[in-house]
Every structure is written in structure tokens, then in C-alpha cells.
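Consider today's protein:

***
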Amino acid sequence: MPTLLLAFANSDIPAERLDTLTAEYEGVSSALRDRAGQQDFIIVSNPIAKKVSFTEDLRVHEQDICLFLFSGHAGRDRLHFEDGPGFASGIGELLKKSKNLKVVILNGCSTVGQVNLLIKLGIPIVIATSSPVGDETATKFSIALFRELSQQKVSIREAFERAISAAKYATGQIPINNFTSETDKTNEDGISGDENLIHIIESSRGLDTGEKENDNDKPLWGLYCQEKNKDLLESWHLPTKFRNIGGSGER
């Protein structure tokens, strides 16, 4: 059965704790619960994701995973699990074995550096950020995204656009920059994306890895895919189990 793999990882260092990560886990789980109960898909969700458990979940469900979400501290080349960093190159090699994987969502800081690798490894759609993103804003974005995908049954592109709006307005904070939308852009690597700007002052999901942030970086999510997979932005929805609701067909 199609499987959604969800990993949430916090820090045990008090100053780096993500206060709303538990709320994100609960909100995403709630958004998906009814559809999972209808056997549209299976949810494999870990609220305290460690590298070993993540690797084991990938191994067990390798052929069935259609979507992967990571929420927690992150950077350009890593995801921070409960027991330390997992580096993008190794994670990408693990994910590429899941031949039915269509969407990867990296809901942490500055994860856009991992997009090219994932796209080149064959992941059709990636959602990532290009700069630090606030903890509360990231939680609002994630919950809204899965509510739209699961309850409204919209495409990944429409869910993404609605989640951007929800994250911006639900925090009750004033963006430093205006909300913008730039569609169908293609960079020099041939990756097209929809980029939406959110820039809010609050604690972020980044850790000090010794890297200096680019002065031109802006806190935003991007929806990325190769040109050949562009149609998936409109056509990909969460899986739905076929149901015969028309009766026996006899008069």
C-alpha cells in the first residue's frame, strides 16, 4: 500500500529546542488520519526520528514510499536527526531506492542545497527552503500543506501555494518583505520551481554549522522539479483507494 514516511527530529540542547515541532507532528497526523483510516495509504511517522530508525523505516517500506517529510533542524547538506546529522549524499542514496517516491519535503532551514542532488537521483518533486525559516512558521506551513493534500484532495502545487499563504497569515507576524510568487523559472541546472517568499523574525530551524549564510539568501520555500516532470505538479495527489460506490450495477 502507498506509504507516507514522516520524520520529526528535535534537539536535546535547550537553546535549540523547536517548541512547535510536537504541534506539527500532531497536526500533520490529524490531517492524515481519516484518509489513512479509509486505507488510502499507510502513515509511518516517527516523532523522535533517529538515523537508525529512519534507515530501518526506509528499508522496510522501500517499495511503497510515495512521500517523505523531514521536519527539524537542517542545513544545506544535512538533516539533523535526534542522534546527530545525516548528510544529504547518504540520505539521497537511500531515498533513490524507493522507486515509487514522488515527493520529498525538507521542512528545515536552508535545505535548497540538497535539491539538485535529489532531483539528479530521480526524485520527481522536492519542496525545500533557501534560508532560515522560523519554527512556528514551518509548523504552520507543514500542517496546512497536509490538510490541503489530505482533506481538500488538491494537487501538490495547489496545496503548496495554499500552505504558503497559511504560513504567512496564521503566525500573526508582519513579514519584512512582501509576499511574492515567481512561477516556472528554470535555473542553469535545468530545475524548474515555484518560489514563494516568507520572511518573518522568529527562532529558526537552522543550526550553526560554521557556514556563513549568503547575504542574498531569503527565507522561502520552493517547489522544484525537472522540466520532464512538470506535469506532476498539477497531477500528483495523495493516493486514493478505488472504491465502488455505485452498487452492484443491477436493476
Notes: The helical segments are 21-37, 51-60, 88-95, 115-120, 135-150, 156-170, 232-235. Residues 146 and 218 are 24 Å apart (CA to CA).
